[in-house]
Amino acid sequence: MVRDIPNSPDMLPITSTRYVGKAVKRIEDPALVSGTVEFIDNYSVPGMAHCAMMRSPHPHARVLSVDTGAAEKMPGVYAVLTGEDVKKWCNPMATSPEGWGAYCLAVDKVRFVGEPVVAVAATSRYVAEDALELIDVEYELLPVLVDPHKALEADSPTLFEENKTNVIQDRSYTWGEIDQVFSEADHVFTEKFRWNRCGANPMETFGCVCDWDTVNDYVTCRGSYQTPGFMALGRAGSFNLPSNKIKVISHPHGGSFGGKGGPRGTEIAALLSRKAGGRPVKYIEDRVEYLLAGAGQSWDRYYKASIAVKADGSVSGFKVDLLDDQGAGSEGWGTISVAKPLAAFTGCYRIEAAQYNMKLVVSNRAPTFAYRGYGPPPHNLVLESLMDIAARELGVDAAEFRRRNYIQPEQFPYTIPSGNEYDSGDYEAVLDKVLGMADYQALRAEQEKLRAEGKLVGIGVASTVEPGVFDWNAYSTVGVAGVGVPEGVKVAIDIMGQITVTVGFSLEGQGQYTLAAQLVADYFCVEMESVRVAYAATDVAPPHFGPGGSRLGVAMSGAILGACQKIEDKFAQVVARLMQTEPGNVELMDGHMRVKGVPGAEMHIAQVAGTMLNRSDLLPPGMEPCPEATYVWTAPNRNQPDDQGRCRSYLTAANACHVALVEIDPGTGVTDILKYFIVDDCGTRLNPATVEGQIQGGVAQGVGAAFFEEYVYTEDCQPLVSLFSDYLLPTIHEVPIAAKGDVVTPSPVAPLGAKGCGEGAIHTTPATLMCAVNDALFPLGVQIRETPMSPNRVWTLIQQAQ
Amino acid sequence: MKPAPFDYYAPDSVEEAVALLERLEGEDVEAKILAGGQSLMPMLNLRVARPDALIDLRKLDTLKYIRDEGEVIAIGAMTSKSDAEDSGLLKQQQPLFQHASYLIGHRQIRNRGTVGGSFAHADPAAEYGAAAMALGIEMKIVGPDGERVVAAEDFYITFLTADIDSTEILTEVRVPKMAPGTGWSFQEMARRDGDLALAGAAVTLRLEGGNCSEVRVAVFGVNGSPARIAEAEQLLEGSSPADELFRQAGKAAAAAVDEPIADVHGSGDYRRQLISVLVARCLAEAVERAA
């Protein structure tokens, strides 16, 4: 029996919810704060070896010879792995589009500084690092591909020689009558923007313990994996193993933000284990390795973009030319970050036509990876900056200009030019609420006063859509195949009435285990303490993907509700038999299976489960005695993309409006964030505290991208950033605790009406801050179009103005 | 990120430590003193520094003190920066030094890092360098030939190099008390709270008959070593304080900076600009405090 998943908490079988929608405390936290969680570096097995890697000091070079003789003889060394071994035992990493992945260790050539060349497994990391010093590698330097613009030229140095080009993809998408819209526009505004490379920096770097069972050719990889199933599939491909011969066990990990679960580290550790005769090998990436060559680099972009505006202030067209420097290959799936903006290309606005010219190229910088937001944050910065430019030229207030262009509440579901369908929203309500919180008029008046005193004070207003619940179809433009991303859970009620929810993803900070417990506890009207959430490794977990693309809260809710409904339906059959009625007359309410219209004719769910497990004589004939159910949810109503990449991709469209007040010190170029306000609408807030945490965390990363974080390379592609003293993450001193409010427009199509909100403010904060800084700089006649807006950059502009 | 192998020593006294340094020097063993480790440990882990031997001064409790010696406050080299930050004596009688201590890194770093370790490491971005120049701090150094005292002007040689021989140990810094009526200021610009400063300035001055006197201007963070800026001091000396004059002094200080550092956080020009702004702002604040 197929039933609809409830799209509102009111539809749960409980008189009034006790946990869903409440800011309940996270069940994960006692173990986290007491240090009893088993992070991968705390995991150890007898005989385990430790891995260290020798990395390329050159951005582009041929590997002429590798001499490992002395290292192999060093006491305490179990195995030394080279490109020769890797070529024999492994394939290059899978990518999309295909053919842009390297081997996990350099085979024949290196393409970026930090690329692993040789790996050692030894009794300790100390010994392994000592052994690296005994290895000689002879390189022949190759010309370096520095400027991504030059990647398009035929005579540029080729990184992947077999591809005969450095262009991963060069495609153009046109949606609507773009030429007509631009020719008929009263105003066209065009600007260039530069988003410098930044990315994820979780507290814990990547780590794994891999174990190659050389008798059964079965590989077990434990580690900090965000998406264990996806990792397992990819490694099976790399190792030429059947997909059921590799098992990935995700340990709780200290944050991910997109990139956790390095394919290289896993493959190197696993192959070292194979070479060491099956001895488990631990690899713990250190911060230098992470910053040089880990999963921390993303979004290295050059934009040229235009908007077409009519005299009445309505925006009719939006064109984006993007050159994206993917770095030395796309093993980190950075390509998707160029495709994802299609899901909310035109933001919150009624824009009838759009065009996207995307060029993805390689360079001799480190490969780029997924990062929270996965591409739209720079895109939003471009669109919102152009909205400000247009508003200013037309003499309309920035907030008012946006209001005029918002998609209206009655227009939902709304299909944007790039094909995605937004489920619901009330953008004007969100704007009004945040303007009210900020006391916007007074803020503008205060700005005028301070400007008169010569102060550089600016206000930024930005509105964005956060696409929630990703689908593979969204990434078809870069060659990703498929529709639907299944997420499965198993819900089991035991003979004592205790409930276990089994999921395929591990702890990484977002609080999904708490949400699972909230939902199940309310569905069956039990205490949250009666619900345990268990992790299952890839070999036994139901089909799953895990966190990513603002999806898991929604997807897991769908799966849990589906599983609970299946149990409810089984219980109805049992109770109908006992009460001598039809299953359709039995319903679950407040933890009891009740016969409709017969007061007192009811059984508690624990009794029903107990009956199923212990009184087969009372069950309907042939019934399986199983008070458990697995349900695999996937977003409804998804479709194949057309030739312009258009499809219903992300299921939900959350939105937010931010207002910031900043002041720039003209002497130092330092920007101070004086006030910060956020109103967001992610539909039903299943756990408001979790939502708030996601938003505030997104603000932190947004502030980082806007002002601090940058992977700097020299003019010959040598990285200048390898320490946290160079790569600046904002701290509690730099990140404002935003004043936050909400508007709730439930999703009509998502479980319980909740919209994906896991990326949160990173979509909006960089745009808001750039708009605010440019508002502050406006009286000087200069504007900044580059991130991060470092004091040096801002001061340089101020100098130009004077 | 694990250090290369090294021998580890933790002597019980300064004498023992000096004898050990002398012995290792004789055996051609490169030894490095560990005095808190807030800079050295990362350098070891990165294998940027790879001494054969590490001499940890952690047991030298005799070097943990902040003493009132009349004109001077004597601070033992192994005193933690947070003890300097918390010292009531320093707060009352040498607030510039106390404030400079507070500006170093984060509290966790100051708990572990030592005053002597910072001076001996001679990182150009260390707050104590500017304090030493502005206040005329003296360093007491003990070696095989006994004790010697070095003035701040002679102490800093270049980037990460101070006038301490490989067989010597810095045991004490001697900080003159601030005379009543002295105006002071210490300001720096760091990308984030607690980061190494891109540039910073320290100023002390007095007002006599409404005019500036005994002006001392020191800068740090911009190039190899902290320095006093005579050009800026002379502009102020004997003059009536005014914003325009402060700006000129700032510009003079910026112009006096040789070979400013350029890195991912700021260009040489930008660092010069910071010196210009910070010196002017320090002067204004110091005058305010003196008045």
Folded structure, characterized:
The complex is a heterodimer of chains A (802) and B (291). Chain A is built from 19 helices and 29 strands. With 802 residues, chain A is an alpha+beta fold. Chain A folds into 3 domains: 9-36 and 486-633, Aldehyde oxidase/xanthine dehydrogenase, molybdopterin binding domain (Aldehyde Oxidoreductase, domain 4); 40-142 and 206-284, Aldehyde Oxidoreductase, domain 3 (Alpha-Beta Complex), CATH 3.90.1170.50; 375-405 and 413-470 and 650-801, Aldehyde oxidase/xanthine dehydrogenase, molybdopterin binding domain (Aldehyde Oxidoreductase, domain 4, 2-Layer Sandwich), CATH 3.30.365.10. A 7-stranded mixed beta sheet of chain A has the order 3-5-1-12-9-10-11. A 6-stranded mixed beta sheet of chain A has the order 7-15-14-13-8-29, sandwiched between helices. In chain A, strand 13 and strand 14 (315-325) form a beta hairpin. The longest helix of chain A is centred in the C-terminal third of the chain and has 28 residues, at 552-579. Chain A is globular, with a radius of gyration of 28 Å. Chain A starts with 28 loop residues before the first helix and ends with a helix. Chain B is of the alpha+beta class and 291 residues long. Chain B has 3 domains: 7-56, Uridine Diphospho-n-acetylenolpyruvylglucosamine Reductase, domain 2 (2-Layer Sandwich), CATH 3.30.43; 61-176, Uridine Diphospho-n-acetylenolpyruvylglucosamine Reductase, domain 3 (2-Layer Sandwich); 183-290, Enolase-like, domain 1. Chain B contains 12 helices and 14 strands. In chain B, the strands form 4 sheets. A 5-stranded antiparallel beta sheet of chain B has the order 4-5-10-6-7. In chain B, strand 2, helix 2 and strand 3 form a beta-alpha-beta unit. The interface between A and B is medium-sized, with 30 and 26 residues.
